[in-house]
Amino acid sequence: MDFNTILQEIQEEIQKYFTKGKLANYIPMLTQANESDFAMSIITLDNEEHHIGCSDKKFSIQSISKVFTFTLALEYYSKELYKRVGHEPSGNPFNSLVQLEYESGTPRNPFINAGAIVTTDCLTSIYKNNAFDEILAFMKKVSHEENITYDEDIFISELGHGFHNFALINLMKSYQNIKNPIDDVIQTYFKQCSIMMNTKQLAHSMLFLANHGKDPFTKEQIINESKAKRINSLMLTCGHYDASGDFAYRVGLPGKSGVGGGIVAVVPKKMAICVYSPKLNVHGNSLIGTKALELFTTKTGLSIF
Amino acid sequence: MDFNTILQEIQEEIQKYFTKGKLANYIPMLTQANESDFAMSIITLDNEEHHIGCSDKKFSIQSISKVFTFTLALEYYSKELYKRVGHEPSGNPFNSLVQLEYESGTPRNPFINAGAIVTTDCLTSIYKNNAFDEILAFMKKVSHEENITYDEDIFISELGHGFHNFALINLMKSYQNIKNPIDDVIQTYFKQCSIMMNTKQLAHSMLFLANHGKDPFTKEQIINESKAKRINSLMLTCGHYDASGDFAYRVGLPGKSGVGGGIVAVVPKKMAICVYSPKLNVHGNSLIGTKALELFTTKTGLSIF
Amino acid sequence: MDFNTILQEIQEEIQKYFTKGKLANYIPMLTQANESDFAMSIITLDNEEHHIGCSDKKFSIQSISKVFTFTLALEYYSKELYKRVGHEPSGNPFNSLVQLEYESGTPRNPFINAGAIVTTDCLTSIYKNNAFDEILAFMKKVSHEENITYDEDIFISELGHGFHNFALINLMKSYQNIKNPIDDVIQTYFKQCSIMMNTKQLAHSMLFLANHGKDPFTKEQIINESKAKRINSLMLTCGHYDASGDFAYRVGLPGKSGVGGGIVAVVPKKMAICVYSPKLNVHGNSLIGTKALELFTTKTGLSIF
Amino acid sequence: MDFNTILQEIQEEIQKYFTKGKLANYIPMLTQANESDFAMSIITLDNEEHHIGCSDKKFSIQSISKVFTFTLALEYYSKELYKRVGHEPSGNPFNSLVQLEYESGTPRNPFINAGAIVTTDCLTSIYKNNAFDEILAFMKKVSHEENITYDEDIFISELGHGFHNFALINLMKSYQNIKNPIDDVIQTYFKQCSIMMNTKQLAHSMLFLANHGKDPFTKEQIINESKAKRINSLMLTCGHYDASGDFAYRVGLPGKSGVGGGIVAVVPKKMAICVYSPKLNVHGNSLIGTKALELFTTKTGLSIF
């Protein structure tokens, strides 16, 4: 398959969608993105790379960070994590308190905000004050990239406007499902959301999940095969908030989106993909990113189904 | 009617219920109450007073404060208040976030926590840093009692454990239904809940609501007749969380309970009543207080129905 | 008080509202009402009568029938009834299945459709095939009016379009909270809703509830004083679906509305009132009827608060 | 891979689970199943067959029928079907009316009861009185088996006890999302649930979905490739009610369960599987069937992730 040609076709076919969608506006900093940005990166397990668009431009990874923190917590803390976070689709928007209250503070899965905050609380229990440093170290390891950090302005913007996340963490604390001080956990959480990466780096970072848990180049087993499959399964059923079914239906690949405009996806045993475009659809997922991935699986037949 | 005899009968008949119910435990300070305490005070519009039990013992008024802050806000701010807080029974427990999320941050009524917090936010917009002082001044005026203050230990205990209230205020802030800084509003709210009063003082404080808004002794019109009736109506339909219907059904008087163990009630055009006993029923209302008021209306026929 | 003058003032002041509201459209027959109809009847316990408008025109009493079936069931069946129907405001529209499912088939109160259907099921258990005849006989007794029956066309229209009520009764049957065959119960229920009465007759029928359960003319104790007060309390907290709090707030009298356009209300120890106007507000209550009652209590001061 | 050995290992390892789970009891007929029954069938695209247990014993396919009716409706009616049924996980038990009411009568997906009833309504619009015959004809075609019919006793049992399904269809009718008479649609629906098949026949019937829509033996394209993938995607995200995420997590294959005790699953491009054991777990899925499939993917590594 000629991936360069496919990427070029995709880039052409998505042009008509640039008039649609809206930049994330729940924190002011995200409204400053460039609406016409587009990038897509493919990296195969045998180290073939294909990129198109602004694939060197960094953006905040936002909820894509949840895949990595969950991986980290699952490796060191799976028994407790399984008790405190479920793995069912929520059937509700990403920030719903309703489900959380009906289910007494236990989030449906680690890829909605509440579940990701509990995951970060688990990492805080393990790593104490170093939790964010360890998350960053893990990102560097899986991306093979030393030069990764978070954006201070975005972090501050999250802290000052993330009232809904403060509501979630306080609600879970009232149900004793947050073990560490709220301020410690929420700061680490907002920092991980503010990590800046480009599509090349993110595609690279997902390769171990396409390869049954093993880094295809260093051969390090980042997480065991069974857990890697479960993370992929979670991305498929829960990776796109209340549009997860639609994404599975249209794209047919495990993936995870972030409100910064990025989406990562894996083709098991073959490759990892990352696409970026900052305008979001009504479900909070990159509108053009979703479209590009749908075109990709239609053109290549590389759906898991 | 011989109210002293009636109070004595009530005190006897409630004895068997002291084994039931549980102290409030959502903040540690409230668990230190004396489980066997009981007090009941009746003050008529023509200044007849009847008391039984520990009617000089002060307890934290908790949600009873909502009646007074709502009165104050209604007088100075009614137009905006009507837009930001409803007046329908919630049909849900006092701290439900579910309703609040479905209805985009607009609390059902001013007597559930969320509605009372919005009310305190209104008072903060009017009185700025003096909000709590003004609330306290109002309590002193309506109770004819200078010696009223809040309990610092209870206040600190609320601040350190009131995660659910923090969740509520953050959720409403995310819907722009809180105008002032969260910390300012929540501190005033927790202080008003920590105000210490006894049944004599609270019964006295409710007389203006039994008297169509006018203080029966000073003749000051605290609030106009129409608003006074509406506050009574709200107490009847919403004064006891998700047991409001049951209270109206059994007692048949407008009233308001607090998790500190107090309940106030009014017999329109006749008298105000306050009862205290700290153990709560499953709905978070004083178990013996509710029973005592039910006995009172059964014995006297003084229901509004 | 000169009630004739007051009724005339009300009739004038409501004229401007005739452009507002909408006829009930959930069954076709109800859309045939005359939009400009208005009637109001007041009957006092000492047999003074005041009427204005088309007070001889009959309309289908619809949900007003719930007051009478509940009275009848409460007298003969109260123990079981208390277990199977609650007495809390629902906080939801009159036909909500949500609450019913969360609470396993137990309706919140007897004045929402689900609760009224359970009440009719109770009457079916007592009276078997004669259930509707007994309901009609009761209506004749309390109205002192032999010439009352139901409208066959409206009944057929309900049967053919009342899918939501069929959903409710089937859901409750699945929770074993309906004891008799669905068809028997639903037919009786739709017949009771189709009973045709005018404001004179309905006002008359409510007098026993204004008089602590006793017919003021025959002196027959229809229901005991305690139960009569509880029915009044239920009308106040639950009589107008999810606008019950608003009705209590604005009108301040126990009352019950029907989608046919009628509203009944009582002033305890004084009088019964019925108002009719077929266009409904968004909550399904007569728009002009609600307005007229609000004007009535404002002008007379006859609120219970 | 030696599938016979694997099936034998599975049969041994599941023995300890026979003490767990419960027969479906929502209709009386299903309680008559033999608790110790177990069967598992694997059929590959190149026509290798492996069976273990009572693979000739027929059971009612129940919700497994939803896969086939949805396939049929999708082929002839996809435009309208997409408007009337969603494709998101429900996050709720299979029979929830809550979601249906909040979303105005539009079911979340075709594999919960409400969505399957709308699907059957679509087929009734196409095939009129022949709807059930066409469904049965389709089952015969995809299973290569003439001798398939429904069980009259189970059908009658469903009709007499399926109150919850009657509630669902009436609710959707009230929202105009059912176009045909309720009795016609519900009878066809209950008949399709009562179709009797064994694991051999069901595994055979699923082969076209493992083969991108084409019957691997007759080479007939039952449904196009894109639609076949979408059906697989729907089975993965929504095939097991509110345990769909868990099934994807543990088993990692598209599948569909029925309360009769059957579960079908496909390994795309490789094979179809059916397992049967009548005792259900708390989510209404075959307890041993789920366990057997989990063992199967663990032993073979044949998850799609």
From TrEMBL, chains A, B, C, D:
Show the catalytic activity: L-glutamine + H2O = L-glutamate + NH4(+)
Presence of the UniProt keyword Acetylation in the record: yes
Entry's Gene Ontology molecular function annotations: glutaminase activity
Q: Give me the residues that bind substrate, please.
A: S63, N113, E158, N165, Y189, Y241, V259
Biological process GO annotation list?
Answer: glutamate biosynthetic process; L-glutamine catabolic process
Sorted UniProt keywords: Acetylation, Hydrolase
UniProt family annotation: Belongs to the glutaminase family.
- How does the annotation summarize its subunit structure? Homotetramer.
Q: What is this protein called in UniProt?
A: Glutaminase
Q: What is the lineage of its organism?
A: Bacteria, Pseudomonadati, Campylobacterota, Epsilonproteobacteria, Campylobacterales
